[in-house]
């Protein structure tokens, strides 16, 4: 199972390098089901892995001048605030047993995995369905910068990142392209920057109450970073957009599998 987990870590990085997102949604299931880590701890570990790998990807886009720093900052500030609130106050406050009845117990572990499975469904559909931005490489700057919308989406992404340790690229990229008219490649680079900042800060916010096995975490993150390098090289010869729907179906099956497993258990 651990061997499969290390192989999956490579795939997480490859997906980030090849299609610009999606891989982070698999980090928690890999940690829980292949490495046997408790769900709450897995969300913390996921923040480190996702943040580190996304930062590596963001640097390559920044070098190519495909990162909109202004939009990233407007997105990032409300995201950081909500990540801080969730990781500092909400997550520690969730009891180990949320609901206990005669024939039904809802533990914190099960609750987080159910929440994760639910989030995986819209993430999968966002990759499966053909969007207008998939065919657009350039965009037209909007007449006005919609600050309330960007702040609201940023706050929502922060809650998602803080709760389940996922980057939220499936929310960020469509918002940047459809509503702010940012070119798709710049949207991907900006998304990676936002995810990197949110996830790494969220991990730092968790250190006060979470023990970290660095000897386990660094190799996993290193393997995922190697996957990003492989994915970036593959992107020059393989059209990631053609693989995106197939990856979306895989995420959908994974999400349904997690929901069924936790509900039946």
Tally of helical runs: 10
Q: What spatial form do the alpha-carbon principal axes imply?
A: globular
What is the end-to-end distance? 20 Å
Round the mean pLDDT to the nearest integer and report it. 83
Portion of residues in beta strands equals under 5%
Helix content percent band: over 70%
Order of helices and strands: HHHHEEHHHHHH
Largest sheet: 2 strands, antiparallel
Number of strands: 2
Low confidence ranges = 133-143
Give a short overview:
By secondary structure, the chain is mainly alpha-helical. It contains 10 helices and 2 strands.
What's the helix and strand layout?
Layout lengths: L1 H18 L7 H8 L4 H25 L5 H25 L3 E4 L4 E3 H21 L18 H18 L4 H11 L4 H23 L7 H22 L4 H25 L1
Antiparallel strand pairs: 1-2
Question: What does this molecule look like?
Answer:
The chain is mainly α. The protein has one domain. Helix content is 74%, strand content 3%. A two-stranded antiparallel ribbon has the order 1-2. The chain is globular, with a radius of gyration of 18 Å. The protein starts with a helix and ends with a helix. The relative contact order is 0.22.
